[in-house]
From TrEMBL:
Catalytic activity: L,L-cystathionine + H2O = L-homocysteine + pyruvate + NH4(+)
Keyword Lyase: yes
The species this protein was found in: Pontixanthobacter aquaemixtae
Key words of the record: Lyase, Pyridoxal phosphate
Tagged with keyword Protein biosynthesis: no
Name of the molecule in the record: Cystathionine beta-lyase
Enzyme class, spelled out: lyase
Necessary cofactors: pyridoxal 5'-phosphate
Lineage: Bacteria, Pseudomonadati, Pseudomonadota, Alphaproteobacteria, Sphingomonadales
Length: 402
């Protein structure tokens, strides 16, 4: 039986995905094929090379080599319903590249209000300059969403759960409405990855991931991807070629290395995150735990319905703490590093106050940043959960001792 049998679970398929004899030879992982120039045997071969424009054969470095093609192939297998995947130098570049592929001057873009902040910055900066109007909507309010459509709406940008505040929305419904209105739906699928949320099967047209997070998984590489069925894949690829987006084969090999262990890492960090979220729920210093995997949290039913897995990233809200107390909490942590990004093997903590970012919604119903309510986001890694809980316990103790 072929190891590439589509009946196998995706966890099984990613262990050998991208392995093709002509790319890999007899070794387990695709070699790193560095190269800008690809040499042709003669002029006739050079001419023949121009007539097709497919990946999977040598042409020129910007079209990639077997190292990048193997990763694309593996990510396409990870996303049910995808025809192909395009790689980008970062998750942010993937978001920009995908939006560029579907928008032009005069179009209206609808964007979920709980989107990753740099995506909002892109809409308010680059895309505005380009003549694209962005309207933000509350992803938890269907009437608000519906009312934002007009006959110039060409695309809808979603994310689930929302960055920082972690509320889950009903993607199948939002995506179906977009399709009915003739708009393309794009989703930032970084949190659950294609493994935890099959975005295309749930009605989205383009599934985007910051591979920097879970797929890379080791905090040592930046990359992004966009996967789609054939029609949108063609547009993504053409746009990426025109923008000159290319990733190095060395980076592609690093991301590829993270892929076979991703399911295991996500399973472990989700379990620990859930355990820590439950523990935080009982702390008097905490007013809200924002974690869709936690029963009783907003969107938990949707999570159970639509997702096959979660991850270690969630947030909580401190009550009656000023910023100095929050800083004492975070500074006292030993195992949780202080820093951006997430999805690596080591745990991270990040103070946040999203009040000024949101313009169309509020969730949870708190006054952000007032001292009454301050946010902390945790990215739970692979350390033992009991050690992480002890670390947080020390953080709470430091908060009391001013
Ligand atoms: C980090 C992140 C990105 C951007 O990825 P980079 O590789 O850092 O550019 C996009 N979306 C979400 C939800 C993220 O957390």
């Amino acid at each position: 039986m072929s190891k590439d049998n589509p009946n196998y679970h995706r966890e099984t398929r990613v262990t050998t995905a991208g392995r093709k004899e002509e790319w890999t030879g007899q070794v387990v992982n695709p070699p790193i094929w560095r190269g800008s120039t690809h040499l042709y045997s003669d002029v006739a071969a050079l001419e023949a090379g121009k007539s097709t424009n497919e990946d999977g054969r040598f042409f020129y470095g910007r079209r990639g080599s077997p190292t990048q093609w193997a990763l694309c192939d593996a990510l396409t297998k990870l996303e049910p319903g995808a025809f192909g995947t395009v790689l980008y130098p970062s998750g942010t570049a993937a978001l920009a590249g995908a939006l560029f592929s579907v928008l032009k001057a005069g179009d209206v873009l609808l964007m979920a209000d709980n989107i990753y902040d740099p995506t909002r910055g892109m809409a308010n900066g680059l895309f505005k300059q380009m003549g694209v109007e962005t309207r933000f909507f509350n992803p938890l309010d269907l009437d608000d969403y519906r009312s934002k459509f007009c006959d110039r709406t060409k695309a809808v940008m979603l994310e689930n759960p929302g960055s920082l505040t972690m509320e889950l929305c009903d993607i199948p419904t939002l995506a179906r409405l977009a399709r009915e209105k003739g708009a393309v739906s794009l989703i930032d699928n970084t949190w659950a990855s294609s493994l935890g949320f099959a975005a295309l099967e749930h009605g989205c047209d383009i599934s985007i991931m910051a591979l920097t997070k879970h797929v890379g998984g080791h905090s040592d590489v930046m990359m992004g991807s966009a996967s789609a069925a054939e029609r949108y894949y063609r547009r993504l690829r053409r746009t990426a070629q025109q923008l000159g987006h290319v990733v190095s084969p060395d980076d592609a090999a690093l991301v590829m290395r993270g892929l076979p262990t991703m399911a295991l890492r996500l399973e472990r960090s989700s379990q620990s995150a859930l355990q820590i979220a439950r523990w935080l729920q009982d702390r008097k210093e905490v007013s809200h735990v924002l974690c869709p995997m936690l029963p009783g949290t907003r969107g938990h039913e949707v999570w159970q319905r639509d997702f096959t897995g979660g991850c270690g990233l969630f947030s909580f809200v401190l009550r009656d703490a000023d910023k100095a107390a929050r800083a004492r909490f975070v500074d006292a942590l030993d195992l949780f590093g202080i820093g951006y990004s997430w999805g690596g093997f080591e745990s991270l903590a990040l103070p946040f106050d999203p009040g000024h970012i949101r313009t169309a919604s509020t969730w949870p119903p708190v006054q952000w940043g007032t001292g009454e309510h301050l946010g902390i986001r945790l990215s739970v890694g692979l350390e033992h959960a009991a050690d992480l809980i002890e670390d947080l316990e020390n953080g709470f103790a430091a908060m009391e001792n001013s």
